[in-house]
Amino acid sequence: MRAIIISSTFLTIVGVVFVVVETLVRHHRDRYDVIVECGDGHRYTTYWVPAASFKAVRLGTTRYQRCPVGRHWVRT
User: Fold this and answer.
1) Is 38 helix (H, G, I), strand (E, B) or coil?
2) How many structural domains comprise the chain?
3) How many C-beta atoms lie closer than 10 Å to residue 24's C-beta?
4) What is the mean pLDDT of residues 31-58?
5) Each residue's pLDDT tens digit, 10-22
């Protein structure tokens, strides 16, 4: 009988795809939709997923996101 060898690269790709699909499914259930407010007082909705940044830029532990109301970058 032949042993099936699965490479670590394949397992990593499968894991990443699983996380992305799960995140998108949960997003459609409005589980991670939150209302945020920028420093200028503009309020807007975004989706907040722990340890992931789909609509924000991460620099260290800080997220920077574009405010769609005032069209400026804010720390969220």
Assistant:
1) coil
2) 1
3) 11
4) 80
5) 888 988 988 888 7
